Amino acid sequence: MPVESLATRPDLLGPALELGDIGAEFMQHDPVATLTRARRLAERWPDYFLVVLDGDVPVARAVGVPVAFPTPERTELPDHGWDGAILWAAEDALDGRPPTALVALDVQVAGHLRGRGIASQALEGLRARARDRGLSRLVVPVRPTGKVRHPTLTMEEYVARRRADGLPEDPWLRTHERLGARFVKIAPFAMTITGTLEQWRRWTGAPLAPGANLVEGGIAPVLVSPEQDLGVYVEPNVWLEHPLTG
């Protein structure tokens, strides 16, 4: 399947956005993620906003942001994962610092076509784009798709779960590993969302009790303090690095 970028096909932005979103309503309220609204990414880094086509029909998108990594002050990938990568990209854009690596932020496949290997083609597209633009690394803060069924497990416990064939139990981690990606580290604070109890009730439709609360679509609990009228969701991710050679 051909892969186009918004640099050459800006008309694909609308159809690409219809392929899916990040998930549950509360996930839309990470303040750092407002920096990566699709139209902003399409305008600032259209070269790294890729669309996989079946004929001329978009069937997947893959979006990355370029960053400078490693640097003297950035010796390892950020513990803040997805949020941290977005902040790096914004800092580098403001400072005019040349990028040396690509961070994959989002891969979405049309719902009726999932499970057919199209996500792998989208990731291959990002790898090829990183190589073609002279970048030395492709790294991904992965949100394991199956973790929603195990929100009380630590990410370390979840990542350790393997099938009999040795591959990860999680299907999204398995896709990456089959493409040669290697585990780098857990990002314990990849996305942080805060809100009042009323906001959390509106976002989740769930009653909230003091302490840890499991909510639909979450891979970790929402921690609630009625005294402070505060709910905090801190989501871990998994940093993986894809080879750009071979």
Which SSEs are present, and which pair or pack?
Elements: E1 3-5, H1 13-17, H2 38-44, E2 49-54, E3 57-67, H3 81-95, E4 101-109, H4 118-132, E5 137-142, H5 155-159, H6 171-178, E6 182-195, H7 197-204, E7 211-213, E8 222-225, E9 230-242
What is the gist of this entry?
The protein is an alpha+beta fold. The chain has 7 helices and 9 strands.
Name the descriptors.
246 residues, alpha+beta, 26% helix, Aminopeptidase
How many strands, what sense, and barrel or not for the largest sheet?
9 strands, mixed
The chain-level structural class is alpha+beta
Strand share of the residues? 25-35%
Order of helices and strands: EHHEEHEHEHHEHEEE
Shape: globular
The termini sit apart by 20 Å
- The third-level CATH topology is Aminopeptidase
Number of domains: 1
Low-confidence stretches: none
By CATH reckoning, the class would read Alpha Beta
- Please compute the radius of gyration using only Cα atoms: 18 Å
What's the overall average pLDDT, rounded? 93
Assigned CATH architecture: 3-Layer(aba) Sandwich
InterPro entries: Acyl_CoA_acyltransferase
